[in-house]
């Protein structure tokens, strides 16, 4: 069984966040016995983000998370570093790595220039990964940066290596949708990338099909609370400002809900959206930005929901079974599907 296509909108040529021109992704994967973790980096453009920022916004759907950089992002509405994803205990190391990377290109940061706002988001991969090993180091951020590409591996890679979804193997997933806006003359791309680490098996819905109930063993308990998280990153080439991107990021929750999530108490569900259409040059005194009118945003809202749902589904289908610490195993969806009665 292949991953179904979600919704009616067409995907971009790669069906990934990299269909938005200029966006690249790099992974560093740590796969060594009880260490099953890593780092994933999303680069919004190939230039200097500190001097040429992008409009951005975030929506905290459920705030059980330990991210860094969201407060300033919310206040100023700009993105000034790549977006880094990793495990919960590695946020500090990757924050330092982000700052060092920015200093290499901008040595006056913190002196004659303002400080930089590193953006790092996390999920807890502690079921498969030995968090106490503190295996993720600053150098792993650099390794992910070194392999930035428009080809985006999915599944148990990078930050997704140790992640779990719906009691199975989760991880990195990505997707994209093309949308026509207004009269149809203007077409834009919206891409999503998720770090998927949430959900209870009984709740899994696959393109409207209650697949989790079919996969769950008869009589299996469904009383355990949902403990997990998901980071959802949306990129678009549509000309939007931070206020509009806030609205767009909120629609990621629609795609998440369609897969069966109720945003449980212990789940950190965070969405971030940015636009590559126009760069904000540091030090400029006046911004002259062309923006879509709000009444034209509905197609992008649909694309956000569809691409997030698709990215979660793609993460499940791309993942392989992973054996981690203390004999813990997360079986992949494809193996579970193979055992269903035909």
Automatic annotation (TrEMBL):
User: Can you name the source organism?
Assistant: Herbaspirillum chlorophenolicum
- Family that this chain belongs to: Belongs to the peptidase S58 family.
Report the protein name in the record.
P1 family peptidase
Q: Which InterPro entries match?
A: ArgJ-like_dom_sf, Peptidase_S58_DmpA
Domain of life assignment: Bacteria
């Amino acid at each position: 069984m292949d991953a179904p296509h979600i919704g009616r909108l067409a995907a971009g040529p790669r069906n990934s966040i990299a269909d938005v021109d200029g966006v690249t992704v790099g992974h560093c994967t740590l796969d060594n016995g009880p260490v099953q973790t890593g780092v994933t980096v999303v680069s919004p453009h190939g230039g200097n983000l500190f001097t040429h920022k992008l409009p951005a916004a975030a929506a905290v759907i459920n705030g059980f998370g330990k991210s860094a950089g969201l407060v300033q992002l919310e206040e100023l509405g700009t993105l000034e570093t790549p977006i880094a994803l990793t495990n919960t205990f590695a946020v500090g190391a990757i924050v330092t790595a982000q700052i060092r990377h920015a200093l290499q290109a901008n040595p006056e940061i913190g002196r004659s220039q303002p400080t930089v706002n590193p953006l790092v988001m996390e999920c807890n991969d502690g079921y498969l990964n030995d968090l106490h090993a503190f295996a993720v180091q600053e150098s792993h951020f650099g390794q992910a940066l070194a392999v930035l590409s428009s080809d985006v591996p999915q599944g148990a890679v990078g930050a997704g290596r140790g992640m779990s979804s719906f009691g199975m193997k989760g991880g990195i997933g990505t997707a994209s949708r093309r949308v026509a806006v207004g009269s149809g003359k203007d077409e834009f791309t919206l891409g999503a990338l998720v770090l998927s680490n949430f959900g209870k098996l009984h709740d899994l819905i696959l393109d409207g099909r209650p697949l989790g109930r079919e996969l769950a063993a008869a009589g299996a308990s469904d009383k355990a609370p949902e403990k997990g998280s998901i980071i959802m990153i949306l990129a678009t080439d549509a000309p939007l400002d931070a206020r509009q991107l806030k609205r767009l990021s909120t629609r990621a929750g629609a795609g998440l809900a369609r897969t069966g999530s109720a945003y449980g108490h212990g789940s950190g569900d965070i969405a971030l959206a940015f636009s590559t259409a126009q760069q904000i040059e540091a030090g400029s005194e006046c911004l002259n930005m062309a923006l879509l009118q709000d009444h034209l945003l509905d197609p992008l809202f649909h694309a956000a929901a569809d691409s997030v749902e698709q990215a979660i589904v793609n993460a499940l289908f791309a993942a392989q079974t992973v054996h981690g610490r203390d004999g813990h195993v997360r079986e992949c969806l494809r193996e579970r599907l193979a055992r269903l009665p035909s």
